[in-house]
Design a protein that fits this description.
Oligomer: single chain
Strand content: 25-35%
Number of helices: 2
Shape: rod-shaped
Strand order of the largest sheet: 3-10-9-5-7
Helix content: under 10%
Largest sheet: 5 strands, mixed
Number of strands: 34
Distance between the termini: 25 Å
Amino acid sequence: MKRPLSVLALLALSACQGVVKVPTEMVQYPDLELSNDMLEFGELDLGDAATRNFVIRNRGDLPMGIEAITLREEGFEEHFTISWSPDEVSCPNGGSGGDGAEEARAAVDTASSGGGDDGGGDDGSSSDGGGASTNEDGYLLLDPDCELPIRVDFAPGTTGQMWGSVEVLTVSDKVPTDDDGNPERDPEFWRDPDRFRHVVMMSGSAIQGVGNIVVRSPTVDMGHHYPGESEVRYVYVHNVGDGELRVFTPTLDPSCSEAYSLNTSYMPERPLEPGEASLFEVWFNPVDTTAAFCTIEVTSEDEDSPSITVQAKGNSGYDPENVAPEVAIRWPQVGYQHRSPEPLRMEIDIFDLNQPADTLICKVRSMVDEARLADCTPDSASGHVYVDIPIALLQTGTDTLSVIVTDQSEFLSEASTTVLWRGLYPPSDDDGDGWGDDPDDDPLYVDCDDERRDVYPGAAELPDGIDNDCDGAIDEGSLGGDDDGDSVTELQGDCDDRDPDTYPGAMEQPDQKDNDCDGLVDEGTSLVDDDGDGFSELDLDCDDSDPNVNPAAVEYCNGIDDNCNFINDQAEPNDCVEIDTNPATIGGIIASQYAIGAGESTTLSIFAFDADGDELLYKWETGTKLTEEYGGLGGLDTTTAPTVTFTAPPYPEGMAEGEWPGDIFSFTVSVTDTNGNPAVSQSVEITVYPEVVQTEYENVLAAQATEEGGCSKSSDSQAAFVLAPAAGLLGLFAVARRRED
């Protein structure tokens, strides 16, 4: 881009035409260049620090003045510091690189660099040693081709994401003028005319850097299984901290049942990363149907919880999926008279939905003498079995034989039949079941309904609303009876009629039972993850009704202990994330050029962020004059984007060339999030000159002219001619400087 003329063009002009040929050269104004406009510090552990550097270079042909190198953003300045030393100024192209200067002119304005150690020597003062000198106004002077490295340190004091920026401002020498407005001397230094302001963005974050272990679930129920079956459960280990966590191989306590074993092949040998989870398997291979228990120890480098125990159990307690077995006596039929000296052969069918028939317990009992007559557990899973009852065990007369089948959850079913051995049917037996209804026949056993063959003393109770066993109770021990006294039968929906705390509408308890008979076990209790976030109360979920609250959740500034660490919103500032934060802008408005010519363009950009991730809305505004001339956009290509392009207006209508001195236009951007929360508005001014801004000018070398030509008067005349437009531009620069201040 072209840059404006300067009075340096008047260093020496010779009018001695025909006496000496005066050579000329093209000289470029200071051009500030940064080695990096973004410093990323990455993620640090709280307490650690990191250093990044950038270099300020003067790519022009004239000395450059630097007014200030400062941190801009409030709120993050305690985490970032900047410093530099004049001893580190270097001029890679040789010498001090300064238009004949004897040494590199570099000094530090300690007052404008933030104070403390932000500039100068180790004590913050300026220095004249090592190729550096101090301007009388305290400005940092950087000669052509010279570089100044700037050090930026990031030492976060709290956790979270942090942003910042370093602003570099260049400045021109204030040259006094005489009564006619002519400069009294040459400038000693210049600013970068069209990009006199540069910004280096910075970003970094800090974490606690501590691992935190959570084990799901600390209680493992292997269910009910018979020997020969196996079951596996998965235990998940989470690192919910923000640092690495080494988890050691889980181990079985020596007191564990031999039915348990572990598979830890899924556990990585390396530490778990923040937010990472792993798992191990718990295997259950029961050797019998008795209850089996085990304690598993999980150890880690978590200083707060170095050891966590997981309790496993199998074949213990209530099995919510279990149903009672079924049994049917195929032979003998009710009222059978056994007349052979051979044992009484019974044919029985047994079935269970949950376990093989040959794992059930089956017994044949006599109701008359209450003795166990035989074991009827089948040899195969088919459930079909023949049982021989020795005649010596049969009662003389009529006996009721009951077949009782029990599963491993102690659910039982019963079937019955009657057998006459060495006896006749009682005279009052009308239905042929071997029992009569006349007490004179047998006062101890009276058939309470002698017209039904399924009703007799000791019969298996059926859910039919009839007193089948003639004991005065109806349907007890059957699906139609209320056996636990909770006023609800199995036919009415009681899913465990042996437990008075289990019935439809009962309060669910953390007992691994379906207390309310809704098909769900322990829902709403500490044993179950009710909100679906992967954690139950036993997994340290402090609110199992809210999926956003659990040990792995983000802590928001909402008055709730989101991550269940027993500290609401954390005790330290910035340790919780605002759920409706105001957006923030970093670095102010950055322009590609702060000075342009009429009709030229420059881009304006604003960087903004919102900690809670809301979408951001942008609104750019310009002065009234630009708005009217450009129909509302004020010379901008858009007013709703983070980066816009401004095109300067041409000469004002009716003005001739040379009559318009240029103008300064201001721009403001407002940033809000979708919830209407605003950021602090930012403004910038753009200087517009009447002509294309020149980047270099023609410098006539007076040193190569001779005095014999008697050219001094002519040179003064030439100088006066060139000075007029140059002085006007310098005046406009001065206006721009005051407007910025």
